[in-house]
Design a protein that fits this description.
By secondary structure, this protein is an alpha/beta fold. About 30% of the residues lie in helices and about 15% in strands.
């Protein structure tokens, strides 16, 4: 996207703390090669022609306080959308996030914005490494011990099996779940039991129960 923006004569405005941080790190590592003149602060967007700006922001999964969610809700302090703007969501909704993503899309449409998403166009770009990329990572790091993280249990098992094919001994791989206690010391890595890690329902605060809490109780 950054390369396409530069090639088409657009400037790039990163919006959101994590987006700014990640772009800065990518440039320092030489992964993002764009001239300084192509980057602007989001506060300066209105100083440029609308058709000459690309805003890169977080929030394609409808996260509550993300830049895109705030933009869709007209709550972003730095930027306002206009009917001639186009918003591209380059991701599929993660299972369970469908409602949040749909709400963001609806709020964007309410502002008259053109919205392009994976439901209408092939714009999905995965943020997850593929097997060959994970193998490359393993070959570079050559870990003595390995604990796969992120994803459902079958994802963890698949990652553990991949690590074994790359030379990590079977007894040096731990597939852990939420609540498992692990100790890493000079003797290696081992499990030492579990702690409670289930979801905890918070039923409100002293002084009254809000409408959101009541709605949650009705669902339960």
């Amino acid at each position: 996207l950054a390369d396409a923006a530069v090639d088409s004569g657009r400037v790039i405005a990163p919006l959101g703390r994590s987006m700014r941080r990640n772009m800065s790190m990518a440039r320092e590592m030489g992964l993002l090669r764009i001239p300084d003149s192509a980057l602007i602060d989001v506060e300066d967007v209105d100083r440029h022609e609308p058709g000459k700006v690309l805003v890169l922001c977080t929030g394609s999964q409808g996260e509550p306080m993300s830049a895109l969610t705030l933009l869709a809700g007209q709550e972003n302090r730095w930027l306002k959308l206009h009917p001639d703007d186009t918003v591209i969501l380059s991701s599929h909704p993660i299972p369970g996030n469908e409602h949040a993503v749909t709400k963001v899309i609806d709020n964007l449409f309410r502002q008259g914005v053109e919205v392009i998403h994976s439901g209408v166009s092939d714009v999905h770009a995965t943020g997850h490494a593929k097997a060959e990329e994970l193998k490359l990572y393993q070959s570079i790091l050559k870990p003595d011990w390995f604990v796969p993280v992120h994803g459902e249990y079958h994802h963890l098992v698949a990652h553990a099996r991949l690590a074994e094919t790359m030379g990590t001994p079977h007894d040096h791989i731990v597939v852990a779940e939420d609540g498992d206690r692990l100790v890493l010391d000079d003797d290696g890595l081992r499990e030492i039991g579990r702690v409670p890690a289930e979801y905890v329902y918070v039923h409100g605060t002293v002084g009254g129960v809000g409408t959101g809490v009541l709605a949650d109780r009705r669902i339960l």
